[in-house]
Specification:
The complex is a heterodimer of chains A (about 400) and B (about 475). Chain A is an alpha/beta fold. Chain A folds into 2 domains: about 100 residues, Roll (Urease, subunit C, domain 1), CATH 2.30.40.10; about 280 residues, Alpha-Beta Barrel (TIM Barrel), CATH 3.20.20.140. In chain A, strands 1, 2, 3, 4, 5, 14, 15 and 16 form an 8-stranded mixed β-sheet that branches. In chain A, strands 6-7-8-9-10-11-12-13 form an 8-stranded mixed β-sheet. With about 475 residues, chain B is of the alpha/beta class. Chain B has a domain of about 300 residues: Alpha-Beta Barrel (TIM Barrel). In chain B, about 25% of the residues lie in helices and about 20% in strands. In chain B, helix 5 crosses helix 6, helix 5 packs parallel to helix 7 and helix 9 packs across helix 10. Classes of the chains: A alpha/beta (about 400), B alpha/beta (about 475). Chains A and B meet through helix 10 and helix 13 of A and helix 10 of B.
Chain lengths: ~400, ~475
């Protein structure tokens, strides 16, 4: 069944195509075969007999990528039995990879993908080092089928909330992380001594130290939550000391030191609609994303509330309202997150060879007037159904029928 | 005791509803405004209680021309004009007479004008930023029934979230206590303007609301603290409280007839509930599930009061017919769901389905972020409805964030539409307010320019922000 679906060839014809990697193409087509894009352009020859999706008058973009949230890891926010994003009892939970907590049957997945989000980062939370974030496509019967890249990064909390696991001081966070990083490197050098118990006690478990090695060798990113300017500076300092591949997340006051972030070549994950000041983020403002991009920082936009992941496009629209160009905002929810998460060879733009995650919109994806017409994930057309569309069908006319299939 | 008693004797008179002729002279601003409804502070005491000291800020007359005027009365006037003077809307239409002397003329080309937005569910000021325990003043979670607490006594006018909401086009809010309690206390109806004291913000003549809460929150908070621990315990708790209120009301009504002997002892808790029974305070009921809303309607019937609005009401679409028949409005989010079990069945068409059923939907925020984008939330809910084939007009969607919440707080005769004679609460938008790219460029509150996006002199900043929050446009 899966092989059959993958073997399908689909042509999306006549739409305005936004490849993101290049300028928009009017009246263009996208040809998809075996889950991959094989051709994009205004003169693509469509083989006979392929499934056609008429996108005349529609907009075609890559599927949106939300670099935040816990899709698959949470069902009901207040019900801990349905939450899998935090591991208890390990403040340096570097070895905690969320992948096996992902529930492919989560009701949030259809709710989100039918609004044009096709890929999301499933991010662990809590603890000083939260664990390993995993990039997933929002389709698949098993976790293995969903995972795009695992891990994308290891998450560390350098914000106010990280203090609890570091003795109650920001200085404690930096000191603890330095100690753990040094111990991981020492552990790597002296694994034999460690197994013979001929070493001083280490500051984290062997498994967690082992898990940090790809980060310390620059193969996996450190995703640092930091909002206050001084916390961002601490993250940059640590990254420099240990030659880490750093991704800043949150970065509420990032705009204040945008040039320094740009100079360090560090990308930033920003939630544009968040502007409520706290002592962690007194300088938070709507223009943050735009100011960072203007300074040359690579920015991906986020919707961090998992149940609202579908509002990523509203986030992008608001980023435009507060200074980003439209093209920058589209890039910041497609190609930029793909680059930041190390999957731009397969994701983020409409180009031959890339995974066929794309969306046909009735218009500008960031506008409220716009509806989703078609969603394709890995070349497979996704039915535009969710638990919420079923509730709507049931209660459109009152009183409802409680028959299993609503009468037509 | 003697002086107090004689004062009571002198003032209570035929005071079936609060105040009667004994209220303080209205503030100058109120004198020119439409007659406010009688505010119900108390039937038990006629002295003014924490009275509004609101005074309209002076502003020259304002004529906005060449704009698209969305009146929230069914009209969308292209190339329209609107004249504001002395805190009132003087004229609205395709053609408005020449500006009076001294008037400021605003070129509205390409811009849209709507009534000031009203959020009937806000916790600004009671859960103020920066969000520490020190500012957590929204839930008096010490007893499941705290009808005696008043949100205005928690409200912090220097909450830095206030200017953010003003910049989003909000002119009036209902600041509510939280939902930890079955009965959480009185709401505050406030003009959203910079002020030193909450009294300066209190909407003159506005009725109080009473916050009640169904479902998960009260039973979670009180499960280990003597109850309620179940939904049936919740119901028993409301009923017990209103039974006390009936008795309290009877005692005061009897005493008010002839003022013989000592007056009954005042009890602030039952007093708020007695005013609900008298119809002077509106019930604002946090309630998610359809079946629980039906229970609450029965409770209201049992004690003979009306529930003015079900707040959050994520399942209201399931009983939209029942709610429309009952005349209870629903204050809902555009698309929140899933954060707890009773929110699992939230759908984006909730407001639209209630509209279709003849109900009175309201888009509320319950959130310091959402209150800045109430127009966007209404847009999402409108288009979600339209895409599902549910007919919703732009005017109806505008009413979700203007005159419908005005109705829920009893002020729809004063604010919520652009009509001559109404209070000049007006927003000028950079474009269609239902576009994600549009922003409020000017906000007039009672005719006063409370916010201007192009002029830092009209971008209020709270004390909190001074010296610690970078000013807009600064690079610190």
């Amino acid at each position: 069944m899966i092989a059959l679906l993958l073997a399908q060839t689909i042509a999306i014809t006549g739409g305005t195509v936004y490849p993101v990697s290049g300028p928009k193409l009017a009246n263009a087509s996208v040809l998809i075969r075996d889950g991959r894009i094989v051709a994009v352009g205004t003169s693509v020859s469509i083989p006979p007999g392929v499934t056609r999706i008429d996108a005349s008058g529609k907009w075609v973009t890559p599927g949106l990528i939300d670099g935040a949230g816990q899709l698959g890891l949470v069902e009901i926010g207040a019900v801990s039995a349905t939450r899998e994003g935090t591991v208890q009892g390990d403040t340096i939970a570097a070895a905690f990879n969320v992948a096996e907590g992902i529930n492919p049957a989560s009701t949030l997945i259809p709710v989100t993908r039918i609004e044009g989000i096709t890929t999301a980062l499933a991010v662990p939370s809590g603890n000083l080092v939260s664990g390993q974030a995993v990039l997933i496509d929002l389709d698949g019967a098993t976790m293995e089928q969903m995972v795009v890249r695992s891990p994308v990064g290891i998450v560390a909390d350098l914000s106010e909330s990280g203090k609890d696991d570091a003795g109650g001081s920001r200085a404690g966070i930096a000191a603890r992380l330095r100690q753990v990083f040094r111990d991981a490197l020492e552990y790597e050098r002296r694994k034999t001594d460690f197994s013979r118990a001929q070493m001083r006690p280490l500051s984290a478990s062997a498994g967690d130290l082992e898990a940090l090695l790809p980060v310390l060798h620059g193969r996996v990113s450190l995703i640092a939550l930091a909002n206050r300017r001084s916390d961002i500076e601490t993250a940059l300092r640590l990254a420099k000391e240990f030659r880490l591949k750093l991704i800043l997340a949150g970065a509420a006051e990032g705009w204040e030191i945008a040039a320094a972030i740009a100079a360090a070549g560090v990308p930033v994950l920003v939630e544009p609609m968040d502007n409520i000041p706290g002592y962690d983020s007194l300088g938070i403002r709507y223009e943050n994303a735009a100011l960072l991009v203007k300074a040359g920082v690579a920015v991906a936009l986020l919707e961090t509330d998992t149940h609202k992941s579908r509002n990523l496009r509203q986030q992008a629209g608001n980023a435009v309202a507060y200074g980003m160009t439209w093209d920058q905002a589209l890039r910041a929810v497609t190609l930029s997150p793909a680059e930041i998460f190390g999957v731009a060879d397969r994701y983020g733009s409409l180009e031959p060879g890339k995974v066929a995650n794309l969306v046909v919109w009735s218009g500008d994806p960031f506008e409220f007037t716009t509806g989703v017409e078609h969603v394709l994930i890995r070349g497979k057309e996704i039915p535009l159904k969710s638990r919420q569309t079923e509730l709507l069908e049931r209660y459109k006319k009152l009183p409802p029928s409680y028959a299993p299939v609503p009468p037509r | 005791m003697r002086p107090l008693l004689s004062l009571l004797l002198a003032l209570t008179g035929a005071c079936a509803s609060a105040g009667g002729g004994t209220r303080p002279a209205p503030a100058p601003a109120a004198a020119t405004a439409p007659a406010p409804v009688a505010a119900a502070e108390s039937t038990s005491v006629a002295r003014p209680q924490y009275p509004s000291t609101y005074v309209r800020h002076p502003n020259p007359p304002v004529l906005i021309r060449n704009a698209t005027i969305m009146t929230a009365t069914g009209q969308e006037i292209s190339n329209g004009s609107i004249l504001l003077k002395d805190g009132r809307i003087v004229a609205v239409g395709a053609k408005v007479d020449a500006p009076p002397p001294g008037a400021v003329v605003v070129d509205g080309t390409g811009k849209y004008v709507t009534p000031g937005l009203i959020d009937d569910h806000s916790h600004l000021g009671v859960y103020a930023a920066p969000g520490t325990d020190a500012e957590s003043d929204g839930n008096e979670a010490t007893n499941p029934v705290t009808a005696e607490v008043w949100a205005e006594h928690s409200f912090w006018p220097q909450d830095p979230q206030i200017p953010l909401a003003i910049a989003g086009g909000i002119t009036t809010i209902q600041a509510l206590p939280g939902s930890a309690n079955l009965i959480g206390g009185r709401s505050a109806i406030l003009k959203l303007i910079p002020a030193r004291t909450v009294q300066e913000m209190k909407f003159p003549g506005a009725r109080y609301g009473l916050k009640m809460a169904c479902g998960e929150n009260p039973k979670r908070v009180y499960r280990m603290r003597g109850g309620p621990s179940t939904r049936m315990g919740n119901m028993a708790g409301y009923r017990a409280a209103f039974i006390q209120a009936e008795s309290y009301r009877r005692k005061w009504d009897a005493w008010n007839k002839d003022h013989k002997g000592d007056p009954p002892e005042r009890n602030l808790r039952t007093e708020s509930l007695a005013e609900v029974l008298r119809g002077n305070i509106y019930v604002q009921n946090h309630c998610y599930r359809a079946d629980e809303m039906a229970q609450m309607l029965d409770l209201a019937h049992e004690f003979g009061f009306k529930i003015r609005s079900f707040h959050h009401a994520v399942e209201s679409y399931k009983i939209a017919d029942l709610l429309a028949k009952e005349g209870t409005s629903v204050s809902v989010w555009a698309d929140w769901w899933g954060f707890k079990e009773e929110a699992m069945d939230g759908i984006q068409q909730n407001a639209a389905l209630n509209q279709q059923a003849g109900g009175r939907p309201i888009i509320h925020s319950d959130d310091p972020g959402g209150i800045q984008r109430l127009n966007q939330e209404a847009a999402k809910a409108m288009y979600a409805g339209q895409r599902a084939g549910i007919p919703v007009t732009r005017d109806q969607a505008l009413r979700w964030i203007t005159v419908n919440p005005a109705w829920a707080i009893g002020l729809d005769s004063i604010v919520g539409t652009l009509e001559p004679g109404k209070m000049a609460d007006v927003v000028v938008w950079s474009g269609d307010p239902f576009s994600v790219y549009s922003k409020a460029v000017q906000v007039y509150n009672d005719g006063w320019l409370a916010y201007d996006r192009t002029d830092p002199a009209h971008q209020p900043r709270t004390d909190f922000e001074l010296g610690q929050v970078p000013a807009p446009g600064s690079d610190r």
